[in-house]
Design brief:
InterPro entries: HAD-like_sf (IPR036412), HAD-SF_hydro_IIA (IPR006357), HAD_sf (IPR023214). It comes from Streptomyces rectiviolaceus. This is HAD-IIA family hydrolase. GO terms for molecular function: hydrolase activity. Helix content is 33%, strand content 20%. The chain is built from nine helices and 15 strands. Strand 8, helix 4 and strand 9 form a beta-alpha-beta unit. The relative contact order is 0.17. The structure holds magnesium ion.
Length: 270
Amino acid sequence: MEQVGAVLIDIDGVLTVSWEPLPGAVAALERLCAAGLPFALVTNTTSRTRASIAGRLAEAGFPVGADDILTAPAITAAYLREHHPRARCLLLNAGDIRSDLTGVTLVDEPDAAPDRDVDVVVIGGAGREFDYAALNRVFRHLQRGARLVAMHRNLYWRTADGLDLDTGAFLPGLERAARVEAEVTGKPAEAFFATALAHLGADPSATLMVGDDIESDVVAAQRCGITGVLVRTGKYLPETHRAATGKPNHVLDSFAALPGLLEHLSTSSG
Ligand SMILES: [Mg+2]
């Protein structure tokens, strides 16, 4: 690759686990900052705003602000502004992420009349809000011709007491019932990486993506022409690595080894 000009970094499993910094991660990000290398933290998280994530990471010592963080909701807002401008959107999400949906017109339900026009149904992360009434309301809007945009298709996420069911478990039912296909905006969608690159003004061939999910972070970024770096922390499992549909350009024991890789790449590309 050419000289590294920008780095995209997944948060959970790369910089932190349960919001606690992984060993050496703070120091490694400080070195990127000191070198003046543009970076963005990219996450499918739908339960927190960029400001809240930035606050949490800053508390843990990471040199970041809200502008350095791109969440699936923030990327979805950019996608909606570009592909569905001025659309009236119905949001179904667990957690209040409205402040990250800049420029998106949200139709408030259930206050609105049930037949109120909705152009796009936007599905975020699952939670107790995904009850029968809410899902049926979404189904009715889809039947009436509303488009379906989903922030991701994750099947579950890890909580302190086990795995919890996520959006990917509900989405196929809605798609089949309403005979529509969701436009997915979060990782591993190309739209996600394209928006992140545009945010940094970066060229894919000069960008690294560092993640612990070989498919959603690494192989998906490589499909967009980005150099994929897998870390052996977070959800990394040797068997998932072996069975993956692609091969990372680089594999690191942890994010702490990234400055070393960057040095190596800058000497080898002259
Ligand atoms: Mg991760």
